[in-house]
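Let us work through a complete example step by step.
Step 1: write down the sequence.
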Amino acid sequence: MKRHTNKVLRVVLRMGALILTCLMLGGACLVPSRSLKKENLLEDYILRAFQLLRGGEPDSSEFGRWYRDLSSGKASISGMLDEIVSSPEGAQMDPAVTLDALSRLMTDTPISSEKRDQYLNYLSHGVSMHRVVWELSASPAYFGICGKVCVNPGSLGELSPRDKDPEVTMFVYTLIKDLYYGEPGSETDYDAWCEKFLNGEPVAPAVEEIVRTKGFPKANEPAGGWDAESEVQVLFEVMVGQEINEEQEKVCVDALENGMSESYVISLISETYAFQKRCTDLQLIAGEVELTEPRDQNYAMTGFLCQLYTRLAGIKPTAEEMNNFVSQTLEDPGKTRDTIVEIVSTSTSLEDLSDEEFLTNMYTVFYGREPEDNEIESYRIGLSNGITRERVLSEILKDPAFDEKMAEYGIDSYVEPVIPEKIIALTFDDGPYTPVTMRILDVLEEYGAHATFFVVGNRVKNYQDCVIRATNLNCEIADHTWSHQTLTKLSGDAVSAQINDCADTVYNLTGIRPVVMRPVGGSYNSTVSQNVGMPMIIWSVDTNDWKYRDSNHVINEILNNAKDGDIVLMHDLYETTASAVEYVVPELVDRGYTLVTVSELAEYKKVKMEKGKAYFSMRG
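Step 2: predict the structure and record it as tokens.
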């Protein structure tokens, strides 16, 4: 019995030792010692991967982790390789070396030069090495290698936005680098933009928004700043992926030079076949650019105003200035002339232009040609004697040809005169005379009022400043004979001489010839009518200021008697008259009257004045 028991015990002990040995051998198989596993293909593969992709062997913990996870199916070879190349040590390897190593590890063949160049291009434009591992893990050769080392091929899972479509990512890289803010700062930059486009955000509006809100990047700004050609070339290369041809470049550069915005140029590029095809090839939505700036609404008008400003100032207007100028004409075409006068009057470099350059520029911009001498002779005269360029410009803009030119731009610049409810023409005879005339002009300027000055020709030379200032204030300089002669006592030739000599004197000073006259004392006969060559302006309200020399008398005569359409007679020779005018002008304005010149009065009342005919009022 005892012998039998010992025999059983020996059998149990032998079986236990055998089991323990098996367990020990099993553990050795799961984590083999490096001296016993030369034939272990998985171990060799792991060591080779680290050597090729990181330049050295893994430490014991790394090796053990990957051996266990790969053996158990918890990890895949592609996952291990992806982690190695993404590690700090792996990222420091030469990309070309890493690409060849990945190809050998995952397909058992060296990478082709064509494929290597393609991947290198991807990697240099924002695509990660993760995309390369993902592509190689889909090859049949990779599955063969996994089977050889008895490992599950596994999956890398979903790709990040920047790795989903390398071509889109390369477009995003160019977009960020050349338009947005220079070199991309992080993977997040790529992923955010790639996700936008892959999810259907249109390309052209995105490019337009970047340029509109951020402008061109300072980091890439060429020496001397961005010029029109540089901007166009960058925009085209970013959007289309190729260099722009000469014809397309000219169209886009001309647009910028004519005051259109970069948004307008982006819109032009977005409409090209090349851009549409690129978006189609990338399976992206091209989209349309919505032009919101006023300057982009009318190319011709914007170009006209931009060229006008540039010729006067020597520099292009800012975007804000350009939008302001164009919006004024679009909202109210009737203000086109006002906008042009504003450009001229606010040009900071206008003084650098000679009078000849100023006139030449006006005609070149307005009509596309240089002016004939006879067209600008009168303007030359006025400018040389102190007539302002704004005043000369207002005369140029009265030419019907200007409205015809604006019509070519789609702008109806003609304005039907708005007839004030009540209008009066204040007129002054026998001057000019500085102490009085200047006081009258002071109050007229303050209230934006106009008047007509019937000057005596032989006085003009001594009081030129009065005549020049009155003209610049849009007052009318009219003819009151050369030497204050009673015309009814003269022959026809003498009448003509008195009128023409005075008119010539005014023209030679202001460049504007009088169009109306007043006979001295209001006296005329048939000889006078036949020889004056102008309408004769008499009066309907006589203040007799010359007789009474009393301010209150003048005030009462005007305020008690003047009505809509009247012509009021005064003389700018007396201080009392100036004092009366200083009171009357604001009072008439308060009463709702508009104070105009005689010619304006006739225009408002639709009276076509005739030569040699006498007009006492324009009451209608």
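Step 3: interpret the result. The two ends are 156 Å apart (CA to CA).
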